[in-house]
Design the sequence.
C-alpha cells in the first residue's frame, strides 16, 4: 500500500465559488481515481485521472464541473467548480498499481457548501 | 449498469457475536473487495478476492468469492467494539486488455457493537 494524503481535509465554501482538492501519494502509482460520497451514501466514481491526458469521466460527471489534473505519477487535483449546496459531500481519491486491482483510499475531503 | 445489493443495511450486535454480511450483483465480477470506513476516515481495504470460490481470511475476518462470480460474503468472528463502522463491498470487472479498473460499490452495512 501507500501513504495517501488529501488537502484540505475539510472546507466550508460559499455557493458559486470553486475549490481545488489535492491528492498526494508517497510512491508512484499507475492509476488515480476521484470518488464522491454524499452524506450517508456509498461511493460513486467521478473520474479516472490520467497522467498527461484528459481524465475519463463517468456518466453524470463533466469536465467543466469537475476539472482534474494529473501532472505526474504521485499527484492529482480535483476542482469542484461553481459550487452549489448539492456539491456538499466527501471527495476521496484512490490509487492502484497495474499489477493488482486493489484500490487504496485517501482520508477524504469534507466539503460543505453554504 | 452493474448494481450491487448489500445486506443487511445495518446490524446491532453484542460484543463476542459473529457477523455475516453479503453482496449480490446483477452481473459477474473478476474481483471482489471489502472495505471498512470509520467516521471521518476514508475506506480501508480489508480483503481482496480474485478467483471464484476463493476463501480468504484476515485475522477475524473471512470473505468468500461466490462460485457464480455474482456474490460475496464477509464474516467477522468474535466481534469487538472497534469493529464498529460501515462495511462496503466493491466489485470490479476488468475487460479484455485490462483497461477498466472501475469499482462498483454496495450501499454499505452499518455495524454497531454493544460492549
Sequence:
Amino acid at each position: 500500500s501507500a501513504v495517501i494524503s488529501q488537502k484540505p481535509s475539510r472546507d466550508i465554501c460559499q455557493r458559486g465559488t470553486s475549490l481545488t482538492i489535492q491528492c498526494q501519494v508517497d510512491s508512484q502509482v499507475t492509476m488515480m481515481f476521484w470518488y464522491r460520497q454524499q452524506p450517508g451514501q456509498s461511493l460513486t466514481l467521478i473520474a479516472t485521472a490520467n497522467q498527461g491526458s484528459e481524465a475519463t469521466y463517468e456518466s453524470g460527471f463533466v469536465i467543466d464541473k469537475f476539472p482534474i489534473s494529473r501532472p505526474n505519477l504521485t499527484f492529482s487535483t480535483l476542482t469542484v467548480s461553481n459550487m452549489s449546496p448539492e456539491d456538499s459531500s466527501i471527495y476521496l481519491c484512490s490509487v492502484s498499481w497495474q499489477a493488482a486491482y486493489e484500490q487504496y483510499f485517501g482520508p477524504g475531503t469534507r466539503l460543505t457548501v453554504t | 449498469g452493474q448494481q450491487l445489493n448489500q445486506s443487511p443495511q445495518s446490524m446491532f450486535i453484542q460484543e463476542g457475536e459473529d457477523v455475516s454480511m453479503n453482496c449480490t450483483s446483477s452481473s459477474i465480477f473478476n474481483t471482489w473487495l471489502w472495505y471498512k470506513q470509520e467516521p471521518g476516515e476514508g475506506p480501508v481495504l480489508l480483503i481482496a478476492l480474485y478467483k471464484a470460490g476463493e476463501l480468504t481470511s484476515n485475522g477475524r475476518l473471512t470473505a468468500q468469492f461466490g462460485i457464480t462470480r455474482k456474490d460475496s460474503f464477509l464474516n467477522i468472528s468474535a466481534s469487538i467494539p472497534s469493529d464498529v463502522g460501515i462495511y462496503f463491498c466493491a466489485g470490479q470487472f476488468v475487460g479484455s486488455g485490462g483497461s477498466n479498473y472501475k469499482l462498483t460499490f454496495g450501499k454499505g452495512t452499518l455495524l454497531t457493537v454493544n460492549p
Observations:
- The longest strand of chain B covers residues 85-92.
- Chain B touches chain A through 25 residues (CB under 8 Å).
